[in-house]
Amino acid sequence: xxxxxxxxxxxxxxxxxxxxxxxxxxxxxxxxxxxxxxxxxxxxxxxxxxxxxxxxxxxxxxxxxxxxxxxxxxxxxxxxxxxxxxxxxxxxxxxxxxxxxxxxxxxxxxxxxxxxxxxxxxxxxxxxxxxxxxxxxxxxxxxxxxxxxxxxxxxxxxxxxxxxxxxxxxxxxxxxx
Length: 177
What we know:
CATH class: Alpha Beta
Largest sheet: 7 strands, mixed
Distance between the termini: 24 Å
Shape: globular
Number of domains: 1
CATH superfamily: Gcn5-related N-acetyltransferase (GNAT)
Helix content: 25-40%
Number of strands: 7
CATH architecture: 3-Layer(aba) Sandwich
Strand content: 25-35%
Radius of gyration: 16 Å
CATH topology: Aminopeptidase
Strand order of the largest sheet: 1-2-3-4-5-7-6
Number of helices: 5
């Protein structure tokens, strides 16, 4: 059995989080994101993640990492929902969920979401939302398989050559899982 865990990110994890982010983006989102988003220097991305760990915008913002043995293989970033019309005190948002493709299908994403849900419930959150690219069937399928449902909200993000659509998913944290 593999030695796997989820824990809060530490400052020394920032470079590995950036590596997972850029590797995953370059693999999974090459057709969605413009080249300049994929060519971010790892040191620049690491500095942003270090800031998220050392100075999160609020006490409800968290960065959790998935580990397999000593290898950081994925992460989940979350915080209060920022969309207009959502009840901020009770609605949380899964801002980013990435597992490096070579570590996929081993339960890391599910463990990250479960640990994130535990934190949300501890914060008093009742609803959670997440955005997924319309052209990202893997993330959409993962969310649906984890009990999330589309709520009808759609947003377009200008990614350079064209606007890419994202669909919002939600889940009720009050329900037994």
